[in-house]
Design a protein that fits this description.
By secondary structure, the protein is mainly beta. The protein is built from 1 helix and 10 strands. The protein is about 5% helix and about 50% strand.
Length: about 140
């Protein structure tokens, strides 16, 4: 006998991206929501036990990688062009997971992001795949809300 309400997991295809408060639609893939904390091993000379203490070190946030079908919208390219020209164009944003009714349920908000990589489409006359552009955004901090 079930004792609580059933909660199904969310599906991975209902998501959107916000950059500087504006929704950027059409991404087919998002990865890189990976976070690590370094382990710092430390032992004082007068420790009785013969093992090290494990302290928390620096927190690290991976680059967020995004892919979308290529269109005539050049907003991402123009953002990367600023970086290429030496402009410190850092932006805040969020990866937003949505439920089946397209209501926001979880947000991974990132701060001080800038484009570290821009990859244009690959062309191949032997297939009919959609052309994709790929970007990577370096972020300084991510928070799940």
């Amino acid at each position: 006998m079930a004792t609580g309400e059933r909660k199904d997991p969310y599906v991975g295809y209902n998501f959107r991206l916000e950059i500087s408060g504006t929704s950027v639609a059409g991404f087919s893939e998002c990865s890189g929501l990976t976070f690590d904390t370094d382990v710092v091993e430390y032992r004082e000379g007068n420790e009785q036990r013969l093992s090290v203490r494990k302290l928390m070190g620096l927190r690290k946030f991976s680059q967020i990688s995004l892919k979308r079908g290529y269109t005539d919208n050049k907003d991402l390219w123009n953002w990367y062009k600023n970086v290429l020209n030496g402009v410190a164009d850092r932006r805040n944003g969020a990866v937003v997971l949505q439920d089946e009714q397209h209501k926001d349920v979880l947000r991974w908000e990132w701060t001080d992001g800038w484009l570290t990589k821009y990859e244009g489409p690959t062309f191949n006359a032997h297939n009919n795949d959609v052309t994709l552009e790929t970007i990577e955004i370096a972020v300084e901090h991510v928070e799940l809300k």
